[in-house]
Amino acid sequence: MENLGHIREEARHCTACPLYKHATQTVFGEGPAKAKIVLVGEQPGDSEDLAGKPFVGPAGQILDRALQDAGIAREKTYVTNAVKHFKFEPRGKRRIHSKPNAAEIKICHQWIARELAAIAPDLVIALGATAAQSLMGKAMPVGRNRGHEVTWRDGRRGLITVHPSYLLRIPDAESKAREYKAFVRDLKQAAKLAAT
Questions:
Q1: For residues 34 and 54, what is the distance between their CA atoms, to the nearest angstrom?
Q2: How many domains does the chain have?
Q3: Residue 47's domain is classified under what CATH number?
Q4: 45 Cβ partners below 8 Å, 6+ apart?
Q5: How many alpha carbons lie under 13 Å from residue 13 in its C-beta half-sphere?
Q6: Is the pTM of this model over 0.90?
Q7: Residue 2 binned pLDDT confidence (cut-offs 50, 70, 90)
């Protein structure tokens, strides 16, 4: 079985797709090497690209709060992304997130596959459609599959929910509060599945 440190070091030098050319660095996953729950997001954002750590920006703050509200200790989970480099479009001085395409997701899948093989978690949570596509090997609509147990293409148990950045984009407070509760409900369901 591979060691996570070895995989991380190898990923640091990845040039398999063009995304590495403009990103600051590879953003690898972090957390316990034997975590029971792995959370997989889409890709690093601007904050993550600069810090070199997953889920440290605004979406990460929502994830931290939701995990706490669901009774899951973030420090006991492993968090990572389907794509390891930040894909963006420059707009003035800002770097605006750009969704990874199917080829980039496929090329980067080797890293998430190796992370999961090394960790051997009880449950893998896909945060959003890109993560679900990476883990299943095909498009998986979030709305239709959300909150239900799935089996990923590698045979691992999983659950699909929204990406926390989705909650950041909801304009009105009432809808945002409702969707946040639904996100916490999904995470509570994940905690139950991981315990069985």
A1: 18
A2: 1
A3: 3.40.470.10
A4: 57, 59, 86, 97, 165
A5: 4
A6: yes
A7: confident
